[in-house]
Hints:
Layout: E1 25-30, E2 34-44, E3 49-54, E4 64-68, E5 73-74, H1 93-105, E6 110-113, E7 116-120, H2 132-137, H3 150-164, E8 168-174, H4 180-194, H5 199-220, E9 221-222, E10 230-231, E11 234-241, E12 247-255, H6 273-281, H7 286-292, H8 301-304, H9 316-332, H10 338-355, E13 359-361, H11 363-367, E14 403-405, H12 410-420, H13 424-432, E15 433-439, E16 445-451, H14 454-484, E17 500-506, H15 518-548, H16 562-583, H17 595-606, E18 617-618, E19 636-641, E20 644-649, H18 653-656, H19 663-670, H20 675-679, H21 683-687, H22 697-713, E21 716-723, H23 736-745, H24 748-757, E22 761-764, H25 765-771, H26 785-795, E23 803-805, E24 809-812, H27 816-826, H28 832-897, E25 930-935, H29 945-950, E26 956-962, E27 967-973, E28 1000-1006, E29 1014-1016, E30 1027-1032, E31 1039-1044, E32 1048-1054, E33 1067-1074, E34 1081-1086, H30 1092-1096, E35 1100-1107, E36 1113-1121, E37 1127-1136, H31 1144-1150, E38 1154-1159, E39 1165-1170, E40 1173-1181, E41 1188-1192, H32 1196-1206, E42 1214-1220, E43 1237-1245, E44 1250-1258, E45 1261-1271, E46 1284-1291, E47 1309-1318, E48 1322-1329, ...
Parallel strand pairs: 7-21, 8-17, 8-21
Antiparallel strand pairs: 1-2, 1-5, 2-3, 3-4, 6-7, 9-10, 11-12, 11-17, 13-14, 15-16, 18-19, 19-20, 22-24, 23-24, 25-26, 26-27, 27-28, 28-29, 30-31, 31-32, 32-33, 34-35, 35-36, 36-37, 38-39, 39-40, 40-41, 42-43, 43-44, 44-45, 46-47, 47-48, 48-49, 48-50, 51-52, 52-53, 53-54
Amino acid sequence: MEPRFSDGPGTPIVHHRRHFEVGECVWSPCARLGFRRSTIMSVDADRDAYFIAAADGHAQEAGGESVKCSDVRPYFFSDVTYQDNAELAHLDEANILENLKCRYREDEIYTYTANVLLAVNPYKSLSGLYSEERMAMYRGKNPGTLPPHPYATADLAYRQLQKDRKNQALVISGESGAGKTETAKKTMHYLTSVSRTDALQGNRIQDKIINANPILESFGNATTVMNMNSSRFGKYNEMIFNPVGSLVGAGIKTFLLESSRVVSQQQGEKNYHVFYELLAGMDEDEEIISRLLLDPYGSYKLLHSGGAEPLREESQEKKLLAQQFESLKKALSVFVDEDVQNDIWDVVGALVHLGEVDFVETGAAHVVGEGDALDASPSSTASGPAGFGYPEAQQGPAQEPLVEVSSAAVEALENAADLLGLPSVGIERVLKWKEMRVKHQHGRTSFIKCPRTLSQAKQTLQCIIKILYKRLFDKIVSKINAVSNSQGSKDMHQSESCNNSIGTLDIYGFERLQSNSFEQLCINLANERLQQFFVEEVLEAEQRMYAEESLNVQAMSLPDSTPVVTGVHSIMKMLDEHSLRSVKNLCRSGPGDNKDTKFCEQIHRELIKDPRQSGPIMALKLKGTRSGNGPGLNDGFQICHYAGPVSYSTKGWIDKNNDSLVPEIEALLAEGSKGIVRDMADHQGIAAVSGERLQSVSSNYWNNLNDLLGTLKKCSVHYIRCFNPNQHRQAGVFDSRYVLDQVVQCGTVELVKIMHNGYPHRCMLKDLRARFSSLLPPAFDRYSNRDFLHAVLLAWDVDPTQWTLGTRRLFLKAGQLRVLENLKDLGSQASKEVIRSICMRFAKKKVRAASIAIVALSYLRRKTRMWKLDRNLKSFVKVVRNYVRIHRWLRKARSSLYGLPLDDRCIAANQLGLNFALKCLDAKWTVAAKLFVTSNPADVPKYSGRLAKEVPNPQTESVLYFDGSAVKCATLNGNAFLRHSGSSPMPVFSALDTDAMFGLEDVRRVDVLESGKALPLRTAGPGPEKIACMCQNPADRQVFATSSTQNTIVVWKWLGTKSDDFEKCVLKPEVALEFRRSRQIIQMCFLPKVPRTVAEDGGYCLAVLSTVQGKHALQICIVTCFPGGYHRIDCTNMVYLNSKFDNFDYINQNGFHISHFDVSHSGSMLILAGKRLLRFFELRLDAVGKTLQLNTIEREDTDSLMQSDLDRQGGGDVSSVCAMPPIYGLAPGETPRHYNWTDWVVLGWSSGELNGLLFEDKQGSIALVTKQSGRFKRGNSHTKGVPIRSIASTFEPTASPSCQSGHVSGMTINPKVLITLGDDGKMLTWCYTPQSGWELSQSEMNVRQAIGGTPTPMRSGAAAGVQKDSLNVVAAHSSALVPSVVLIVDEKKRRLLSMNRDSVDPSADCFHCPLG
């Protein structure tokens, strides 16, 4: 809740603004009067202000001044005052204040604000205001029908109790001195009078209720600077009624007695009344004087420390106090006998004597400093651990006390002990010594005595006085409750659910003193929570009721006290923590260590984040003083309550928060000779270990408040707000400014605004009909309750603006209920003409309602059809939209995880149920040409008879060539190379077998995308979609995979060709899928090592190299695919082009070329090579063996190879790669050992150099063996600067010189032979020997010379290379059928060459065929 400051000239409430004219009379803010009547002199629109002149007031206020428009209130007041503020024409604080002021002058101290009664204390007796006649006048009358009075509120509560059988509560609140206690007494007196109780029992209960008030006032009220009879405790009087309304019992709940007042009072204040009444009354009772040993006219520290004067003989004050003492004894006699009364006076007198006890320091106190003494709180006596400044406690008489009772106070101590029935020696021992109990093992307990310091002894004495008085007060209250509820009537034995109660809450008012301490915080917390309860239960309930009754009443914002309540609760929790540390002696006792200051520092640290900002908890506003003894920043804090900011001092809070006595005192009380003293002992505290008990006052008070609010929430609450007219308790003085602060602070303005905008009086329709049924003729009995009341209001022409009908209630403006009551009392009857007009009006209303219903039903019928159609259409659109979104999300998810699924036009085999039509956008990617060899399953024997026996079975081999956009095939006839074999004679062929002389034949174009047939070269080429890349499965060389430019991947098996059959399908599709459209496939390869589960399902694993849209990187994906189109992406690896060799700028300038993307021979590595690019990746199965993982191999060594080749002429690019198995042969003298070698990789560079790289499995990962890797010997090698275009491995030869039989997939690679072919046509054969490593096995062979050409010499100074008329070798491969045969593609002349390396005459064994 925002703080409401009351010391400024303006008002804290902002209202709806209104424009005033010049000369108009208004209320303007006034620092002295709150508001004063003024006249508008001029309007300053620029400054949004009025220039006004006071119309009345003192001379110094007669001048003009400028006032903000928002601070001006409209003036409208007549000579007549209003009993209800809701009747005011202008509802604001200025007009409410003027109404209260005028009524106060007329001794009309009560005013309604809707259902809330406002009371202004007159400070004088008003004749006849509380007489029996006035009490009888309010019986059975609703509030508003008679002048405002507490009797009306009490009567309403009693009648609602009988009707609703629900508990009622009267909440009486206000500042100290506002008359709350007197108002509570008047309401309880009225309730006891009107209850249906038989005379004898009623008189007994009434006597107890009436007699309880003077007792509680004497023991719980005191004189303050604000009030002569201020309640210093909270009180909830509960009157219990049986179902018939008879008073059967009563009870009192009290909480938070201000016990600190017993030992100290502020200047101008007094102790509790009972002390002064006892001194004044004992003068007339010699027995009491002789027993108490007190001087009635003496001065005592406990009673006169606040400046109060001792009693004087024959003074008016003394006589008044003596009368009150007699009344107190008479009231006590109703609840306790005379012996108990004497015990009570003994305890009170003993406390006065204890207040006179004083101490002096001994010589030991000068030896042991104050900081070295035991820090024992008066309510806690536990010893502290070593290291906190405590001396080592000693046993026995070896230790001397630090204080002694002064000689002048010994008699007072003995008198107090005699009156309490306790040994004076025991009390003196407790005051001087601290007894600690130390528990040991085996249940043994040691007792240690420690001396108290002077301050500790005084604090312990004050604690004893406070706790004894508080327990005496609680004992008296329990006696009152026990007697009030111990009736013999059978009604008291009924179940609790049968009885109801009316409670009267008389709680201390909001306090803002010059010095505010712990008691003021608790008092103001109670008022804060009650204010919040008022806002929630009354103001919010009003708005909820209007909403339930479908009334159009303007809502308004309500104040919120929750931040303040939460902040105070946090403070109390911190206080409990520090109090617990204090009772356990965990607080330091050094010169600069103050436990109250530490507590305040924590509040500032945790609750006051920024002292400059406003909030519920703020720092103190420091003010300079001449003495310099003002409060410091850590001496307190400030809380912004609903009634304004209050500054609190935290001095002494730790001690005040503990409500327990030291165990030694508890033991003394339990062993006392007087029963009332023994009953005050806490037996749990006697057995407690010293220093471990904390009875938190704040926690107990918080719980009591929660219980009180819980009780109020179960009741129907009625409010009485009491106001103090002035601060000097003078009759007839109305301090407008002072009252205005109270009006604003108690929430009256908010309530009045709601009531004025709404309707303060509301009655149930059925109750009103039963009450006013005689006002209309019986013909109206057939009408509903609502129509009946409507007819009543129309019949007597009640102003329609003053009432409205809800669904269950009639709502009336203020004063209108009195009009209806007057009509009933007069017995008026409506005329026939009025009745006839009302009936006619109701008939027209019914006809109009019926016609409206018919029209509405017709409209609803049409509208319902349209609504249904529109709803169905919207539902359909919503379903379609969701369907489309789901499918889009599904495609995106599949694209991210597995790639896009195939559509109906994807390529597939007839076996898969799909056709070969695929129409997609063209892609402009070009890839390196590739040459593949595989067996020709369609080959059949061509010889019979004698030749079949003499000539080996003829075999052919299929050669597949991918030129970057299409696939072509040719047949290699192995028998064509046998005639030039050195050991075999030339075979004799028949005329039918002359085609066997041609090594290459039957060249065709393979239609992979559409028909799957091998067509003649001259037929029409492929459609708009082309083949982007192609690869062969090393595990099964008859299985291939192709990817279109639209990322359609097809895995197919080669079926072979027959020279005379062009209609046969040459391939069989096995898997078809679509890769991600957001990527563009560049290359791909088969992975021979697949997981076992994939192999069992007939699946394949492909490594796909693709571009990444929007990134300067390539991406490698491991795709696992299965027959039927299902596939998944197991892992991805980004290849970023950001190094000094493969940077993106270089690619943009020189183009991008991938010369090799394939697996190594062992299948454990993936090799990526090309222009300025060389990467190696490790392939591994995951831990469970279900998916493949891809990891980059260290690039440091490979980068050094590329850097060294960059320094050579024309170097820097990997032009060819050959993956071979490692060689395990030993060099001469080499010791055999275990090798983990995996692969041997040969690199051909654009500089004409060759490098061999050996890899091994090193501790579970692939690594380069640097010692076994290096550059091939130069010698008679390739021409410098001429790229090595192709490196081909050869297959293992057989013993027979004829063509090798068997499936190509079963052939093994010969690890000791490889063939290299340069761009200039130079072809070299390399062989490995353990003695000398890799060396040339024979002289070089020039392919161009072998086919009949001559090399063109290079011009002087030109870069090494071949001329334009030379060969353009793009691919080469060795034959698996005839290992000595090398297949070469000459892209310049579009021809396929085959050469026999073992032939004596290479040109004789060189065959070629055109490729288109």
